[in-house]
Amino acid sequence: MKEKLKAIAKNRMFLVGFLLFFTVVVVAIFAPYIAPHTYDEQNLAMKLAAPSAEYPFGTDQYGRCIFSRVIFGSRIALNVGLTAVIIETLIGVTLGILAGYYGKAVDKVILFVTDATWSIPPIVLAMAIVLMLGPSSQNVAISIAVVSWAQFTKIVRAKVQSLKNLSYIEAARIYGESDTNIILRYILPNLTSTIVILATLALPSAILSTTSMGFLGLGAQQPQPDWGMILSEGIKYIGKAPWISIVPGLAIVWTVLGFNLAGEGVKELLDPRLKV
Amino acid sequence: MSDEILVKTEHLKKYFPVRKSGGGKAFVKAVDDVTLEIGRGETVGLVGESGSGKTTIAKMILGLLPPTENTIYIDGKNVWDRKNTKEIRKKVGAVFQDPASSLNPRSTVYRSLERPLLINGCSKGEAETLIRETAAKVNLGKELLERFPYELSGGQQQRVSIARAIMLRPRLLVLDEPTSALDVSVQAQTLNELLNLQQEYGMSYLFITHNLSVVRYMSDRICVMYGGKVMESGKMADVYENCVHPYTFGLMSSVPPLHPRQRDRKKYLLTGDMPSLIDAPEGCRFCTRCKFRQPVCESQEPAMKDMGDGHFAACHFAGEIEF
Amino acid sequence: MEEKVLDVKNLSIDFHTSRGCVKAVDRVSFDVKRGEVFALVGESGCGKSTTAMGIMQLIRSPGIISGGEVVFGGRDLLKLSREEMTGVRGRDIGMIFQNPLDSLNPVYTIGAQMTEGLLVEKMDKKQAWQVARDMLRDVKISDVEQRMKSFPHEISGGMRQRVMIGMMLCRNPKLLIADEPTTALDVTIQAGIIELMNELRRKFNSAVLIITHDFGIVADIADRVGVMYAGNLIETADVMTIFDRPRHPYTRLLMKALPTITKDEGRLETIKGTVPNLAEERPGCNFADRCPYAMQKCREQKPEWKECEPGHFCACFLEEGGTARE
Predict the structure, then answer these.
(1) ipTM, interface predicted TM-score of the complex
(2) In chain C, is it the N or the C terminus that has fewer CB atoms within a 10 Å radius of its CB?
């Protein structure tokens, strides 16, 4: 572990990733201290103002500070992304373990549901779910989780299938461990690194989906500063005030890139098969 | 050695259903009509090539795989009767081939040894005494108890597996190729330890292996399997020195000698591969590879012939063939 | 018979890891003569496979060949360029591995793979197929016509290893290196392969270097044997001498650890302790900590590689006094 940590510390790509990742987290936590304004403070005298000392990235059509809105927006992105990943991990891992461990009919049913979920275009399904539940950031998180748990199930199922035939599991069954105990004490602990890797890799795409839903107006509603929503509203003023769209766009790239690179780093660190 | 029987099974069968390529069902007859007895304190060696059904038998005895037909009795108790489960699991233990995958990588040695005791009603305190005692018996240093499996050598890992298997002081230990992954010097050590433990606790061993030299060192009786059936069984010395089944002879002359002087021994090499066990032929399972084959072998399955003194062979011509 | 096909002199292979430099192979010297089977035997991690890989120059990073010579056909292989070495592999030295399925390409037929090497040598196609067919017959494969058109997954493990052997012998190499060639196979199949190798070496009179951990295979096929322990070659002699009169304490103990008896006849000999960590530099003999005859000297200096009787080499201080205590 230590050796790997050293090797990863030497890799510039991972370092950049972790740096980007940490800035986003720090910004989200300390948003009120960093942002010069609150996200909903309007200054109608300064509508669509160009970047200045007071409004470093200009203002929108209501005279709100884009810089502050984007800073506060990181909270929504992280919050919704994280919630979605937690829900999809819970669904995906549970189904994956059940399918892999019990096999037979249980496996067939779960596999069918998984494949069915996978065959629907995710964004369409997510939109349908949000429209059904009503647009809000909470419902966006749920919809993202519902469309993306399938990959967890597939990978966890395969891993459990190979784990359950290992001799130590057979030995445990011989001395009388119950199925529940085998799953909780023997299988789950040996899945942790797989789950952490999957979750870190799922986070950036969940954030991306969050902003897409915001862009379509299905996420957090005004005056909440959702990056996707800010970006889509800015499109109307792209000629006059391009900063409205550009700044949240850059924030999305920054975050997703950072999380992707950092995720690769975590994978490298935890995956015993990969040797640095 | 006592004549009392610990493990008994008659006409044991395990068929695995498979789908035929043209549709419809067929069965792989992995274990077909096997009768086996293990006496108290006795070591029975189960030998044969891969796919002969050795491991399937072990799994049925260990309660991991339900038989298709008939059952196994340990101490007179049916292994596959639910009300005996609790009792049976204290009577059997197992050691598997691959030492690395035999231990939970996330548990320390101590935790691995503790689990079987806690589940079966030991207090933490009692468990500790037993663990210390058993670890000493298998020459597992105290300092190793708090280590994780990956910090141990293959030989040490296998000793932990043995310790775990005998934790509940079972009557029967199933040893499935326990030393095939180990080096010669570690193998010798492990085998000696197993013999000492057997003497001390009076356990019966079912020793499964393809290594005939190892089985000769360890066993009182051996049972030679081929294609899911027992070909020959009897006292180790009888089968070794006077085998009557062509398969046993072929198997034994295939094993490389442990001295170059035996290089020019009389050899009868088997050609070809084991036939598929799906819809196995009516006659003798071995007849496709047997050079002593007669028409009767292809049409009629040979019955177990009693060669005297507990020596049996499933061959129409047992005792009549000159090798 | 006395022509040395391969002469390995003081070959050393190091692996540079973060925990230090591991001397996986340390000044190993042996030779393989024409028409002879030389077995390199030892327990896991002793460096036998690494030695074979070193001869073939297939050592991967972080390993490097840090010294010595590998003389083959009058040339030192270690001095050849990458292209020259590629020419030597396959044509002059053939190699077969433990798992034949990994060594055969799953998307080409047996025939295509067998003739590939011959076509490289500008043999015409018809002739190449004929050579391949004859070779398959030599390695005792039935239905040759059928098999030439089969894919590797369609034939059994034993047959694949026969195909590998045939493929290697097609180009008539001077040396065949076999790394654990039968470990993955059942005994009855193994016996057939050993029988075949015995027959073929008489027919082709090529030199064979077998790497194995199985003393049974050594007893069955080797003419001469080299025993390795913890990166060192500790003893070489002809096969009878190794089994009957081994000199090195490690070889002696190993011979008594082989299960040649029944439990009623006695107990097997064991070797106390474990293999030393090769990353630690030690002044003395690598076996000293486990050796029942170890002297003060053994822990301070490395024993020299000496010929203790004609053709019998050993690296042990007991040999210097001339007598070994039993």
Answers:
(1) 0.86
(2) C
Has residue B94 got a pLDDT over 90? yes
Global confidence as pTM: 0.86
Question: B101 and A170 in contact by Cβ < 8 A?
Answer: no
Q: Domains, chain A, ranges and CATH?
A: 2-43+56-270 (1.10.3720.10)
Binary contact (B102, A174; C-beta < 8 A): no
CB contact under 8 A, B195 and C263: yes
CATH class given for the domain over C4-84+210-319 = alpha beta
Of the residues B211, B247, B259, B288, the best mutation for testing chain C's interface (the one with the most C CB atoms within 10 Å of its CB) is B259
**Chain B residue with minimum CA distance to A188:** B106
Please write the tens of the pLDDT for every residue from A182-241.
Answer: 999 999 999 998 898 899 889 999 999 999 999 998 888 888 899 999 999 898 888 888
Q: Which residues of B touch A168 (CB under 8 A)?
A: 101-104, 112
Residues of C in contact with B211 (CB under 8 A): 259
DSSP chain A: -HHHHHHHHH-HHHHHHHHHHHHHHHHHHTHHHH-SS-TT---GGGTTPPP-SSSTT-B-TT--BHHHHHHHHHHHHHHHHHHHHHHHHHHHHHHHHHHHHH-HHHHHHHHHHHHHHHHS-HHHHHHHHHHHH-S-HHHHHHHHHHHH-HHHHHHHHHHHHHHTTSHHHHHHHHTT--HHHIIIIIIGGGGHHHHHHHHHHHHHHHHHHHHHHHHTT-SSPTTS--HHHHHHHHGGGTTT-THHHHHHHHHHHHHHHHHHHHHHHHHHHH-TT---
- Which residues in chain A touch residue B106, judged by CB atoms under 8 angstroms apart? 189-190
User: In chain C, what residues touch B181 (CB-CB under 8 Å)?
Assistant: none
CATH of the domain spanning B5-313, picked from 3.40.50.300, 3.40.190.10, 2.170.150.70, 3.30.1660.10: 3.40.50.300
